[in-house]
């Protein structure tokens, strides 16, 4: 499973090679993720306001359905207009919509706002990934996408810490004020620093060919199997936000414990991912993805163990994180590797939409299942992740490590080959 010298460049070499535009794009992702509390804390926020756990889960599912629409539309908008315009539109709307939830007392009205909030909050994701894929050489994609995940998870570290302080002070509504401010900052970064126009724009004469390529995502059989793996992965992973806080609450733990688990998990990911990615980027993508999904399933199953208490919960969270570290960068980089010319936004949109659909269906399916099966449901969730790993093995065949480029011999010493 060894790869080229180019593929094995370390994180510092890759970071030095990134353009200022890419670094600013990652900064925007960090700022936005810092205040992205709507998904992570929606269940706890609604139960705090007196709504039932089932209603809170259904509201989260409504958010997820909106997210799927936003991700699909975001991919189309990215290819047709520009990533920059898509990000600005997404962040401008996210500056306003989550705030409106704090002024509403009717559950149907809250759900009616949660759906468009989900659409607009996720609209930017294909655009952000398209900028990264277009402005970073393919040989650096796995490491660059890993860095982008680090930027997101830095936000996950500091964001929940701030959220925990607000929750401890009983300032629940202020969670969404923070979301408004951080979204506005990301919008300003896009306005002043991200490139205008379509990235990798095709000539007008190729319009017919591009129309054919727009349908290719459905005709790409392996990619559809990969999207099934992504869907199943999301069904599993979303339980970290849907079922885990309820499980902890049912066991008598405080809401702040959930924030602590999110923070510790993100710290582990941040401190370890780039070092491990230097090795796993040399693996075949399907093997890295399958190994990561297997670990994700094992960690999720650990949450259902009747012994060990919080020690087992934190160990399970650690295994989940290492599953993300091993499989995540290869999975996130894969759409850019296989997308036909001019369709990166659509392939990214399909990828994020599959993940978003899983996030929407996850809480919806868990709400009744949790009533019937209780904490033993965690074992079924773990098994589903193993099925996702098998689908990744099948769907990601042919995603080989990039071959060495002619200037590989001139790479800095830090990019010397690593061993898997």
From TrEMBL:
Entries under InterPro entries matching the protein: MFS, MFS_dom, MFS_trans_sf, MFS_Transporters
Gene Ontology CC terms: plasma membrane
Recorded GO MF terms: transmembrane transporter activity
Pfam families to which the protein is assigned, alphabetical: MFS_1
Domain Major facilitator superfamily (MFS) profile: 21-400
Topological relation to the membrane, as annotated: Multi-pass membrane protein
TM region(s), chain numbering: 24-45, 57-75, 87-115, 150-169, 175-194, 223-244, 256-275, 287-305, 311-335, 347-365, 377-396
Keywords, sorted A to Z: Cell membrane, Membrane, Transmembrane, Transmembrane helix, Transport
Localization per record: Cell membrane
Protein name, entry field: Putative MFS family arabinose efflux permease
Organism this protein belongs to: Longispora fulva
Lineage: Bacteria, Bacillati, Actinomycetota, Actinomycetes, Micromonosporales
